[in-house]
Amino acid sequence: MTTTLEFASFATEIDYDDLSPDVRDALKRRVLDAVGIGIAAADAGPPNAVADTVADLEDNGPCALWRRGRGASPVQAAMHNTALVRYLDYMDSFLAPGETPHPSDNVGAVVAAAEYADRSGKELLAGLAVAYEIQAELAWNAPVRDRGFDHVTHTVISAAAGVSNVLGLDEAAARNAIAIAGTAHNALRVTRTGEINEWKGIASANAARNAVYSAMLAKNGMAGPRNLFEGQKGWQSVISGPFEVDLSPGERVHDVMTKRYVAETYAQSAVEGIIEVAEREDLAATDVAGIKLQTFGGAKLIIGGGEGNRYEVRNRAEADHSLPYMLAAALIDRDLSLAQYEPDRIRRDDVQELLRIVDVSENPDLTERFEAGEMPAVIDVTMDDGTTYRVEKDAFLGHPAEPIGWDALEEKLDAVTGDSLSPDGRETLLETIRSLEEHDVSDLTALLA
């Protein structure tokens, strides 16, 4: 049975020298993906609500609020910057049979704590390795979705561990930080069921904030339940059930996927497939009689109607968790990016009519293949004249089986940031992240401020 001490020991023992060159490179690519998405989200409504709330609470502070031109405490910076990374639903994901969290939810917290502690880029990478590893191991070995808890229940623990690392906490203090975080902040799955609203995109920011606050309390001597995981009525008893982890120096980062499309994780292969067939056959939406998607259990559950009606789509939060909407919009527009989530696009008759003839079903064989590491999808598009076009996918570009490298990530950065970065600013940001071990964290945050 995994113990709280096991996580605390791991969090405090890992440093930059423990990371392989491949892990270092992968973590830097995760940073680039996260900050690019964060820059793109700066004008969105819910992140602006977070920014306004931070401004109400604090005049200034030592940690940059990305794109705001001012600072805040590490706690509030973690909340704000994580909201930017997460809100557009374009962040990375870790694929496990019973859970699909977003490890980049840790980036805002670890960066803020590292900036506060005046750490180097090397130290930041070590803290991120800790957070990514623990997030992935919890998702794989201790899924909580079917027990009614949201995946950010894992994030508050992984982020607290990563933050403990960059703050330089000793084992006892890290144990307290993890214990406080995991005892007090377990989020409910209702966030992503039924009628979805904008809290879906902010819940992980709340977890990041709570993680940093827990670590700061521990830094200043606050004790938490030392047996969080293994204790009577503790986390394993109440939240997850018994589990074991096998922690490595950040190697789990290689199992993280990059989203090619602005869509919920489980939709990526299906969206890629329907765009392929629409382009190949030059399909017109007005000639489509029906769309049938065979998918795996998790996709059917979360975005195919198992946890609520996915045919009533009125806003962004509902659209990016609706397979019917995503497939309809992708077929019509041959794309699924930020433009497909503008309110006028969501409400337009063409997509609203087409989404209602999208049928989503679970195929047990595809569920088995998903649990073995694929992300399969079988799509049949039937036309008014009876012709049916089929496309089958095992994975998508960005899946760990087909990883995205630096060049494609730079293209994604350009696509999402547009004119938000000057040419010189773009090149400086890229150079800083590519050579993060040669910089201080403050060099990075100055570019984001």
From TrEMBL:
It comes from the Archaea. GO terms for molecular function: lyase activity. Pfam families: MmgE_PrpD_C, MmgE_PrpD_N. Coiled coil: none annotated. Residues 6-246 form the MmgE/PrpD N-terminal domain. InterPro entries: MmgE/PrpD_sf, MmgE/PrpD_sf_1, MmgE/PrpD_sf_2, MmgE_PrpD, MmgE_PrpD_C, MmgE_PrpD_N. Residues 261-437 form the MmgE/PrpD C-terminal domain. Belongs to the PrpD family. This is MmgE/PrpD family protein.
